[in-house]
Amino acid sequence: MTDQCWLSPQLIAQVQSLRFWVQPGKLEDLISTNLRNEIVMYFHSTLAGVPAEADVLMTSGQLPDDSFTIEQKQAQWVVSAGSTTALLHAFYFFALHYYLGDLSSARTVHRPSQALRMLNQWDNFDGSIERGYAGRSIFYANNHFIGDYARITMYARLMSSIGLNGIVLNNVNVHKEETFFITGEKLQRIKDIAAIFHRFGIKIYLSVNFAAPIQYGDLATADPLIPAVAEWWQRKLADVFRLIPNFGGVLVKADSEGQPGPYTYHRNHAEGANMLAKAVAPFGGIVIWRAFVYNSQQDWRDRSQDRARAAYDTFGPLDGQFAQNVVLQIKFGPIDFQPCEPVQPLFGALRRTNQIIEFQASQEYTGQAIDANFLMTQWEQLMAFDTRGGDESLPLRNVPRRCSPQPEFSGIAAVSNIGRDENWTGNKLAQSNLYAFGRLAWQSDITGQQVLQEWQRLTFADGAVQAVVGEMLTASNQVYVDYTAPLGVGFMVRAQTHYGPGPDDYEFDRWGTYHFADRYGVGVDRTVLTGSGYSRLYSGSNAAVYDNLATCPDALLLFFHHVPYDYRLHDGQTLIQHIYNTHFSGCQAVTQMISRWQTCAGRLPETEYLNVLHRLQAQAKNAREWRDQINTFFYRFAGIPDSQGRTIYA
Ligand code: GCW
User: Fold this and answer.
1) 38 and 90 in contact (C-beta within 8 Å)?
2) Judging by beta carbons within 10 Å of its beta carbon (0-12, 13-18, 19+), is residue 530 exposed, middle or buried?
3) Whose CA is nearest to atom 1 of ligand 1?
4) CA 471 to ligand 1 center in whole angstroms
5) Cα dist from 383 to 272, 415, 470, whole Å
6) Is the pLDDT of residue 9 over 80?
7) Catalytic annotation on 336?
8) CA–centroid distance, residue 363 to ligand 1 (Å)
9) Which residue of 103, 360, 436, 500 is surrounded by the most CB atoms within 10 Å?
10) Which pLDDT belongs to residue 17?
């Protein structure tokens, strides 16, 4: 059976049933009805008729809309919330932590760190999912709506139970088929899906194509400053809001990787976004505008361009020019979801633009649900990064609320990693990334260890399995970094699939992702004096720290500097020896993970055991390939042997 929620069936069976009383009246609506159903389902009990009969009282309280409190008073738990949606979130929080046995009896106020907590589905109407590794779409197949409402309900529950409150239902690359989502019969079906998510307190959004007015055949232009274009969007989007009152708004990828945008008409991105913002404003809607804009037709010979600068150069000058209901959605790093990348310098620098930080739960460059990789380890480090915006201490996790003029239109988003596979995420262990993202969105200073402990205890009944999973996933992110591209240089991946080594695949291509390895050294010079000057874009002391070879953290060394192979890192190793060492050790760590996992045989359902085992075995092959190709690649340039005499294929 498809996994129902974060709780393993064994946990649900174990728990003592509780009776809830839900305050009637003020909070009555569809979400409230759903809340009652959820209570009955999670606790196998009927609802109490009067407060005195209940173990848990669910009430409305004088709290902000998104917040709730939990406390124990004598024998009863009292849960209060500022809105029905918050009461639903409170219920799930209560349920998961009741099962975990770690609820505090003292009154605790829970308020989400981020206002918008969103997933982006990169699902196409034909049923494929761009960069999806867990089967086909749960929403669409062969240009039809599947209509599997039971499955969609389960997904909404998975999301809501970790506090997520928004979902974009289609790929940011909008094909003609999906363009038509905002009209006619297709919109009716979107409405049905929206109704399900609504019951779980989740708003739906749609990606739209900037050239839609042309694609429909209605107009000859999509120029945002031509009144007929603006009116076209106003009409179409008004129809959407009228049909789906809780519709959240639109997401736009413009002027990026072949998608149309305002540049076609010599307009800037504020002009493009603001035109759409005006169309959705009367309905309280928002426009989420992606900052992933760069020249994807670069000439590798041309060293004057640096893709890392692109978003900053495009959007920095537009700070303060976006309408109130526009939110800029910015990838966490300057390039593209690499296993190791610095934080995008726009964060902390933009002070008058609403912002969403974009992550990718789907493991495009990070193992594709084959390689175990607990991404929260990386996200935690990124969120703690001090952007020093305005020269104050300003960790990334505080940037959306602090730097967005309309904090209610700020937050974080992740490209989802679910598909139609039985276990949702292809690799059972990759469920931890979805869980972690939700927890991070709600409580952005949560640690990776806390998240992992929660997830492993909710998911696996056996203590020994929990321990092995905890150990493996704790190490997994660094292990992956170790056997892939070294020290932040990125993009040594196979171009066709983004999986496995392809050290030179991108080197002479048009994507602006180069490592510049030669016989003297490797890395991208982004310093002020001799390189692209990208390091200067950081605020406060960060600029100098990255610019200076001596202070640049080793983990990002090759992102910022072109360094000779005999350069000594902070631990005294030479660069080349570090590359050899990490590639041997990373690969070996995967072999050890397999033997650790094998100790779990018989301690969890066979399908789950085999699912993970087979993927670990595939990961071991992948790691070996990375190890040997990367080591050989550098050995051929550097001609320096491994000091420990291990095999490097020349
Ligand atoms: O990483 C790149 C991916 C594209 C993706 C793009 C984006 C949806 O390779 O597949 O397109 O990022 O984020 O828009």
Assistant:
1) no
2) exposed
3) 336
4) 31
5) 30, 17, 21
6) no
7) yes
8) 12
9) 436
10) 85
